[in-house]
Amino acid sequence: MPFIEENDLLDLHKDVEKAQIINERLLDQIKYKSKDLKRIKIQRNVLLGVTALFLVGTLAITSFTAGLSSSNKLDTQNNLLVSIDSLDAIKTRIDNLKQQNEELSLVNEFYLAKKFLEKEKIYSVQIKSFVDNNVTLASEALTNTLFVKTNPFYAYSLGNFETLDEARKFRQQLVNMGFEDAFVASYKDGQRVKIEDPY
Question: Are 148 and 190 in contact (CB under 8 A)?
Fold first, then answer.
């Protein structure tokens, strides 16, 4: 039976361990290179896809504009045939639509303001009260005005605020403008709840 000395055995173990360490390093390098190759392959595929989309888009735009240029010649000839009467009819229709749009936006603002007023407690600045219902003071375009019957008077208030602080700031601006008797009142469901402390 062959005989191995202890020193040779230790050297052999060291060589095996070195070979295992080198083998693990090589495996790590292979994994790293494999990940790099996958990443490069994905980047290449994305770049090819973007390039293909760009080419298809360019071809589509080119063919579309070529079709438009030929159809524009026909449209130009047809547009010359449009009479002035039809242009006036179109202008009239546009003016009517603008007027209807303005009316609808006023109605929309009214309903939004009404919804806001009915929703929760709001604050407004009362600037005047009258014995008679003097509605002629307000314009129909003012949606931030309140007319409230507080027996025996009709109260006229400006502004609809969610917070008392906003209403107080607005009150101070009105006082600076000369409405020295203005005060903040809270309202709920169209009725005055109470007169708030101005400070």
Answer: yes
